[in-house]
Amino acid sequence: KLLLKLKANVVQPEVFIVQDQFDFGGVSFNEPTTRLLTFKNNSKLSANVLVNLNSDVRLRDFKLVLPEKDKLEKGHLIKPLETEKKEEVFNEEDDDQEEDEQNEESEEDINKSEDLREFMITIPPGEALDFDFIFCPNTFDNDNFDFDTNFKLVGASDEYKGLKRHIKGEKMESVITIS
Question: Beta-carbon neighbour count of residue 75 at 10 Å?
Fold first, then answer.
């Protein structure tokens, strides 16, 4: 028998949201208000961040949109998450055609990131990625909101604080005065 002792250090990416908090103030029904949200990767490793705006009912009036002016740099990736398992049936002959169609759909998904509610972002080492963080009240369930973001770093514990930021604001009723 050969006994071999190994010692290792586990390194995880250091990703954080640049902004300290998101204060939307008073926002009227169906009137979107936008704040910049920047994910920054300060490590030497690529990082994957999970965004699930469907995981908390308080986030139903929010969305993250990749600004039009910014194209994804090489190495950045936004991948929609499949929440429902789909059964796929295909012939071997159709395999290449289906792969091409999936690649086209993936590119369309990136270009339509405003429609994404659940996705994973890959951020290369030393890079940042900006999103428009939009609040547009569509319901009047709660007039005030005051809670933390719930983004997750893949492979990190739930206690990882780099992606936790405070969100606050107030849903306002529009007042129309006719004179």
Answer: 11
47: number of CA atoms within 13 Å, CB side?
A: 28
- Is residue 101 helix, strand or coil? helix
> What is the C-alpha to C-alpha distance for residues 116 and 96, in angstroms, rounded to an integer?
26
Q: What is the DSSP letter of 113?
A: G
Tens digit of each residue's pLDDT (9 = 90 or more) over 56-108:
888 888 999 876 655 667 677 888 887 533 333 333 344 444 444 544 444 44
Contact 6, 152 (CB under 8 A): no
Q: Which amino acid is at 115?
A: D
Residue 32 pLDDT: 93
Residue for token pair 């994804």: 72
Provide the percentage of residues in the chain whose pLDDT is more than 90: 40
3-class DSSP state of 138? coil
Residue 19 tokens, joined? 């902004």
> Taking a C-beta distance cutoff of 8 angstroms, is the pair 39, 24 a contact?
no
Whether pTM > 0.85 for this model: the answer is no
User: Nearest to residue 142, comparing CAs of 65, 10, 27?
Assistant: 27
